[in-house]
From TrEMBL:
Signal peptide annotation: 1-41
Any GO BP annotation: cell adhesion
Annotated region (Disordered), positions in chain: 463-495
Its membrane topology: Single-pass type I membrane protein
Official protein name in the record: Amphoterin-induced protein 1
Main location group: membrane
Subcellular location: Membrane
Family as reported in the entry's similarity comment: Belongs to the immunoglobulin superfamily. AMIGO family.
Membrane-spanning parts: 391-411
GO cellular component, one term: membrane
Keyword entries, A-Z: Cell adhesion, Disulfide bond, Glycoprotein, Immunoglobulin domain, Leucine-rich repeat, Membrane, Repeat, Signal, Transmembrane, Transmembrane helix
Residue stretches making up the Ig-like domain: 273-371
Source organism of this protein record: Merluccius polli
Family annotation (PROSITE patterns): IG_LIKE, LRR
Length: 510
């Protein structure tokens, strides 16, 4: 009886022992799993899993599936890159990290960001979410990050960006969105100054953007255009696109200068489908776009004019030189003054304001010099029609004058020299009569014989008391043999030709 009882007791004790061992093994396995680095909610272990150096915590490349807990509050840099974290929930850090400035989450499997994920890390300056699997940026997702300056979102699968996704990120300076699936250029990020007024770099290269708002982009200040990158997109070729990039290239803006060969576009019909060419080749080989040239400024009299100093960098100190290297100084009585934004205002344009203007822009790290050539028209802006009427009136007056001259030459009555038996007497050639003849109209023979004299001209260089002018009509041997005699002198050979001049200042009466 005892043996069966013993056996029974022994059998029951063995089964209980096995059960206890089984539960102990399971509990031990569960406890061990809690300390595996990849386990969810694992506590930070700076001795075995992560590397802690002062205020830097690096947990990179240890196959984490969630963020470790119990992070020290003095952490400034937290590196969680190259892990397997798929979701960033609101409770990933239950305690506030008031000194955390850099959060690195690149090369994970992130496809979900909680709308409250950044509530406890409001002091972030640098956030790296690149090389993940994000697809959609929801509204107000980054709103708590009012101090964020750099946001890296490149190499994801982002195809949708809510227009209010970046609301509240007022300090953001650099936004990297390249290598995604974005199909629309986020113009509101660079035109709405109340939202991202400090943004100096926006990279949307290598996306799926086909059409750009070229007019709006051209109107932006140069310091913003200098940091806009949209190369390696399937852009549609157009002359507006060429003019935009050609202007940027002439201004030596980094976005066009550094990636000139990477700006390509697809030719529209009737070109073969998917024919891709370089944007800078559109001016000659393909679409025959007009070569872009910088245009000079033009103004009218009495116009108020503002010349912009459009620099590639923001917040630079600007000094202007007027034509003649005259420095524009504050408080002087000059017609020009420098405005708060660095542009030059000319209150009333005058003709002497034409010429070359120079803007010197200086900062701690950069120097720029811009030249503006101003051409001033010599009439006011509203006087264009009056100028046209004046020109038309002048033309009509000139034509009328020409008509009157022709009438005078060809339609006047016949003069005496063309009438028969008039102008000649006794076969005498009328050419020997001077146009300055003082023959009176009366018929008194005595006075007629006395006053009917002719004006002749002789060389004066051999005569005493003359003005010494040279004879233009003959040589010395053609002079009269008796040059000093006034009565019977023989004329020169060319006397008939010489007497035709009526404006000689040495006449001689014979």
């Amino acid at each position: 009886m005892l043996q069966p009882l013993h056996q029974t007791a022994g059998g029951g004790g063995l089964s209980e022992t096995v059960a206890c061992l089984r539960w102990s093994f399971l509990l031990g396995l569960a406890a061990a799993l809690l300390w595996i680095p990849g386990a969810a909610g694992a506590a930070l272990n700076c001795h075995k899993t992560c590397i802690c150096a002062s205020n830097i915590v690096s947990c990179s490349k240890i196959n984490l599936t969630s963020v470790p807990t119990a992070l020290p509050p003095y952490t400034v840099v937290l590196d969680l890159s190259y892990n397997d974290i798929a979701r960033l929930r609101a409770e990933w850090t239950p305690d506030k990290l008031p000194k955390l400035h850099n959060l690195l989450l690149s090369h994970n499997d992130l496809h979900f960001l909680s709308s409250e994920a950044f509530l406890n890390v409001r002091q972030l300056r640098y956030l790296d979410l690149s090389s993940n699997k994000l697809r959609h940026l929801e509204e107000f997702i980054f709103e708590p990050l009012g101090h964020l300056q750099v946001l890296l979102l490149y190499n994801n699968h982002i195809s949708q960006i809510d227009r209010s996704a970046f609301n509240g990120v007022s300090s953001l300076q650099k936004l990297y969105l390249s290598q995604n699936q974005v199909s629309r250029f986020p113009l509101e990020l660079v035109t709405d100054k109340s939202r991202l007024e400090k943004l100096i770099l926006l990279d949307v290269s290598s996306n799926k953007i086909k059409v750009l708002p070229t007019a709006d982009l051209q109107a932006l200040p140069a310091w913003i255009k200098n940091g806009l990158y949209f190369h390696n997109n399937p852009l549609v070729c157009s002359c507006d696109l060429y003019s935009l990039l050609a202007h940027w290239y002439i201004r030596k803006l980094n976005s066009a200068l550094d990636f000139k060969e990477d700006y390509r576009c697809f030719l529209p019909a009737p070109a073969p489908p998917k024919t891709q060419v370089g944007v800078f080749e559109l001016s000659s080989d393909y679409m025959n776009c007009s070569t872009f040239k910088e245009t000079d400024e033009e103004a009218f009299l009495e116009q108020m004019l503002i010349l912009g100093c459009d620099t590639k960098h923001k917040d630079m100190s600007k000094t202007w030189l007027m034509p003649g290297n005259v420095v524009v100084t504050a408080g002087s009585n000059q017609s020009a003054k420098v405005l708060r934004d660095g542009s030059l205002q000319i209150s009333q344009v005058r003709p002497e304001d034409s010429g070359n203007y120079t803007c010197f822009a200086v900062s701690e790290a950069h120097n720029e010099t811009l030249y503006v050539v101003l051409k001033v028209h010599n009439f006011t802006m509203n006087a264009g029609g009056e100028t046209l009427n004046t020109a038309y009136t002048t033309l009509v007056g000139c034509l009328a004058s020409v008509v009157l001259v022709l009438i005078y030459l060809y339609l006047t009555p016949c003069r005496c020299f063309c009438c028969p038996n008039r102008g000649k007497k006794g076969g005498e050639d009328s050419i020997h009569s001077s146009m300055l003849s003082v023959t009176p109209t009366h018929e008194d023979p005595m006075l007629k014989a006395e006053l009917n004299r002719h004006v002749a001209f002789i060389d004066s260089k051999d005569l005493q008391g003359q003005n010494g002018k040279l004879n233009p009509n003959g040589d010395d041997e053609d002079l009269d043999e008796e040059a000093g005699m006034l009565g019977k002198g023989r004329r020169k050979k060319s006397v008939a030709e010489s007497i035709s001049s009526v404006f000689s200042d040495t006449p001689m009466v014979v």
